[in-house]
Design a protein that fits this description.
About 10% of the residues lie in helices and about 30% in strands. With about 190 residues, it is α+β, with helices and mostly antiparallel strands. Strands 2-3-4-6-5 form a five-stranded antiparallel β-sheet, with no helix packed on it. The chain has a four-stranded antiparallel β-sheet with strand order 1-9-8-7, with no helix packed on it.
Amino acid sequence: MYRPSVSVGVLALVLLVAGCGSASDSGEGGEPPKTPTTSAPPSTPPPSTASSSTAPPPTASPSTAQPSTAPPSPPPTAADGTRYSACGDGTCEVRVTTDANVPVPDRFGLGPIMVSSIKDGTVILFAPLTQSEFSSDGGCHATFTGPGADSSAYALLTCDSGAKAAVNQMGLQVVDVSDGAAIIRIRPAT
């Protein structure tokens, strides 16, 4: 009892499967082998397939947020305030305004220091010279004039905030210039 129809069917199926596999693996006859594909879409479409309805990528633009600004700090405080008499011994730090008259000791070779102008971060100081010789190290712009027929010689100093100068025997530092006032520090020159 042999059933040739079932055996022939199984044999045909085995040959068909074996034949298909060997032809596509060897590349002989039929189609060349196919590359594997994935079902996940590409993360970025190629340029040729990009839709014209997609928006362009965002561009960097300046921040519209305003930078936070701290309230202005108060101007520094002078150690001796506006007590100009503290400079009489040759060591002081005072806050001066226009028309201030700051005494300094005779050993400095200068008369009292007067404030002529304070504006745009600069203070202009005027002082009569009480010695026949005078000098400046150039920390401030210095102009020396005189003596004249009816006047003694004087020094005119134009100093920016932070400037340091030595005039005759006096050391001068302009600590701060702001709001129509200046803080000056006076010490013996070294």
